[in-house]
């Protein structure tokens, strides 16, 4: 079997497993990204996300993650929900409406890797779903699946940006896709203009330490600065403002994957019901939800902050 046939079969398997897009790039060191990441870290834009300072070489060089790596396979999975939240409820980012994507995508990624081994014989590699030092959006752009928008999100021209990204680094050479040659954001600045905390800067730089998602999820065991109070617009977990205003997301279509079916309470809980929630009930209801990342204590802190 030649490289072209092998590549075609890999993409066919990805589609059969329910991934919306599959792109493949050569596993090379990301020198330009290394420079940008270093500058970003030096400016302290990662705030208290100290994990971003670790494993620098692993983030920019896939061969450090998988010795002998030849290819990086990038997979996109649509999560855009059809259902809407109660308009009076504390706001939750759409990616967290259903069960934890780490668990769902990881299971699909493991099955994907197993099928590749069954089809082609032994392949050495590792899969990643937003839980390891991999620059997923860069790899997605390198495979032509989209471009990095001014809001730092990967944007697909025909489907928008509401996607989870998974990566599989393997030691097999494949046929590589061409990178996205054009940035279709153009002169649009809607995401920059709409960000209430001014976290989106020119030149596609995101000050992570000013993002609402950072304050509501990453800033653990610390108080949210008072000056941010009038800027939160009732966001309790994450923030979708920069995606909601993006013109390209008019092409977003609701996911058909039942694994991402929204949790009833997330769509329907009122502010009072959230505030009356016991820790025991929180753990039971959100056992498989991304919301558990902030823990009960964090959610109660966020609620108090946006309601005071």
From TrEMBL:
InterPro entries: 4Fe4S_Fe-S-bd, 4Fe4S_Fe_S_CS, QueG, QueG_DUF1730
Residues annotated as domain 4Fe-4S ferredoxin-type: 172-205
Binding annotation for tRNA: 220, 297
Known cofactor(s): cob(II)alamin; [4Fe-4S] cluster
Subcellular location(s) of the protein: Cytoplasm
Catalyzed chemical reaction(s): epoxyqueuosine(34) in tRNA + AH2 = queuosine(34) in tRNA + A + H2O
Binding site for [4Fe-4S] cluster 1: 185, 188, 191, 246
GO biological process, one term: tRNA queuosine(34) biosynthetic process
Domain of life (superkingdom): Bacteria
Residues the record lists as binding cob(II)alamin: 59, 130, 151, 154, 165, 213, 239-240
GO cellular component assignments: cytoplasm
Pathway the protein acts in: tRNA modification; tRNA-queuosine biosynthesis
PROSITE patterns reported for this sequence: 4FE4S_FER_1, 4FE4S_FER_2
Chain segments annotated as coiled-coil in the UniProt record: none
Residues binding [4Fe-4S] cluster 2, per UniProt: 195, 211, 239, 242
Cofactor note: Binds 2 [4Fe-4S] clusters per monomer.
EC id: 1.17.99.6
Protein keywords: 4Fe-4S, Cobalamin, Cobalt, Cytoplasm, Iron, Iron-sulfur, Metal-binding, Oxidoreductase, Queuosine biosynthesis, tRNA processing
Described purpose of this protein according to its UniProt entry: Catalyzes the conversion of epoxyqueuosine (oQ) to queuosine (Q), which is a hypermodified base found in the wobble positions of tRNA(Asp), tRNA(Asn), tRNA(His) and tRNA(Tyr).
Assembly information from the UniProt record: Monomer.
NCBIfam families: tRNA epoxyqueuosine(34) reductase QueG (TIGR00276)
Protein family membership: Belongs to the QueG family.
PANTHER family linked to this entry: EPOXYQUEUOSINE REDUCTASE (PTHR30002:SF4)
Record protein name field: Epoxyqueuosine reductase
Gene source species: Arachidicoccus soli
Gene name for this UniProt entry: queG
